[in-house]
Amino acid sequence: MKDVFYLAWRYLRYNRIKTAVLVASISLILFLPAAMQMLVREAARVLTARADATPLLVGARGSGVDLTLAALYFREPSLPPMLYREVERIQKTGIAAAIPLNLRYTAGGQRIVGTTPEYFDFRGLRIESGRGLALLGECVLGSRAAETLGAGPGDDVLSTPAGAFDVGGSFPLKMKVVGVLAPAGTPDDGAVFADVKTTWVIAGIAHGHTDVTAPSASSGVLSRGEGNVVANASVLPYTEITPENIDSFHFHGDRDGFPVDAAIVVPPDRKSGIVLRGRYEEDPGDVQILVPRTVVDELVDTMFSVRDAVFLVTVGLGVATLATAALVFALSIRLRRREIETMRKIGAPRARLAAVLATEVLLVLLASFAIAAGLTAIVSRFGGVMLGMVAE
Amino acid sequence: MIAVREAEFAYPEGGFHLRVRELAVGEKESVAITGSSGSGKTTLINLLAGLLVPDSGNINVLGLDLAGLAAEDRQDLRILKLGLVFQEFELLEYIDVLDNILLPYRITPVLTLEATARERAMSLAREVGLGDKLQRLPGQLSQGERQRVAVCRALVTRPAVIFGDEPTGNLDARNRDHVADALFSYSEQTGAPLVVVSHDPELVSRFARRVDVAELA
Lengths: 392, 217
Hints:
The complex is a heterodimer of chains A (about 400) and B (about 220). Chain A has about 400 residues and is of the alpha+beta class. Chain A folds into 2 domains: about 1-45 and about 300-390, no CATH class; about 55-290, no CATH class. Helices cover about 50% and strands about 15% of the residues of chain A. In chain A, strands 4, 5, 6, 7, 8, 9 and 10 form a 7-stranded mixed beta sheet that branches. In chain A, helix 2 runs parallel beside helix 11 (about 350-390) and helix 3 packs across helix 9 (about 290-335). In chain B, the strands form 2 sheets. In chain B, strands 6-7-8-3-9 form a 5-stranded parallel beta sheet, sandwiched between helices. In chain B, helix 6 (about 145-155) runs parallel beside helix 7 (about 175-190). Chain B is α/β, with parallel strands linked by helices and about 220 residues long. Chain B has a domain at about 30-40 and about 70-205: 3-Layer(aba) Sandwich (Rossmann fold), CATH 3.40.50. Chain B has helices at about 40-50, 70-80, 95-100, 105, 115-125, 145-155, 175-190, 200-205; strands at about 1-10, 15-25, 30-35, 55-60, 65, 80-85, 160-165, 195, 210. In chain B, helix 7 (about 175-190) links the parallel strand 7 and strand 8 (about 195). Chain B has 8 helices and 9 strands. The two termini of chain B are about 20 Å apart.
């Protein structure tokens, strides 16, 4: 058998380009359906796990999928924000806690998640270095966000302005990084967490500026009267919150009317959740309440349908590829007819010649299976990471 | 060593009929089979080598009646005892010169490739001037060199009889002499009879006996 393998191997090596094309084609056709199954399964698992860990969501009326994708996976919100009063309304019911999420802004391409410290406990997020949020203008980075931004405790992170010509607000805010979270293997890894009030500062709803009542602000002061000071445009809002200017920060308007993109609702038990949903159904107003698992199940069903369709196409391609490979082998035997005839004349048994040709096919298939198995193992091992990169 | 008596052969599709009344070739004898195109020279060599089986009569090679042997036994006889050189030398393009010479050892279970076979292959290659080209692929050789490789492949198993079908048909005079020298030299050294089909007068003139296939009928 050694000689049979030797001749087969030498033939394949001599025709290395043809062999490589065959091996690559067969490998891919074996690998793609398996990889697709795995990735879809992993995606469904990740999606479902996140949804399972989130009992209820409240957000503006509109697409439940958009609300879920924004609140759970920090996709850019496409629904208008709701008012903060919804968060307080839930809190006041006494049957559920509400964690606000403000998701409009980014920093260096990473989503800024404006929330409250309860979010970290709710998601079981652990500070790996530094400390948690304490003051306005501070932020805590998810592990991947820290890596992407190249920042850690003590560094600064600048929010990205919503629009270069947005004169109405959304000034870039320099935030102080006070902590980095341990990797969680969830979208939290890619987020920049800040207090919800900090995101209102970014939105221009809250700001601090030079104390025009102080004598040092005289260059910007146009006139001083009893109880009021008139200043010119040189009095700029701060773009950084520091211990020195933090006291000057203030909100304009009532907090109930400030925007939030969603709120995670955490009832203590299933019954409380049903009661709360019932109340919203009676009086929905401009908001919706939904169970993320229901929305994600619909998404996963769609993914599985797409997967099944793609699988069928891949099977068709596989049959075509294998038929082409068979044709290549058949043509190759035809082209080698004289060579085979010579070996037969010399005295080679037909069985030995058939064994050489079969071994060539076997080696190509073995190499293809090995490569497909290797690639599948890589996808199996790093499927989650790949999905994360694709999501990024 | 070779004896043909009243052998007849016709291809199934018809149109050609070969009859050999009697032909005998002894040890060390060299016989050139000549004749016009289509007279049956190649058919005769194929019958003598056991590639074809006569419809009637008797062909005896090395004491064996070829018609009475099973196809597998004729295969074994060819690879163990007969050396065959063809006009189209048909080397395997994907293995080097040394492996081409050793091909008989790799395509049958009845031969085992051992160190002695390798040494013999290298020795034969040196004798025909290919000692420094053992690692080359056939595509890197000239026509003459390729035919010399084919001759070495035919002789590497130490055959008891050598058959050639226009073995120098594609070669120039110098290469023709090279190949013929190798075949005659082996025949003289081992006593193996040499039976060659050729229409090359220069080559035919070197044989002790010349037989026109038409006269055999």
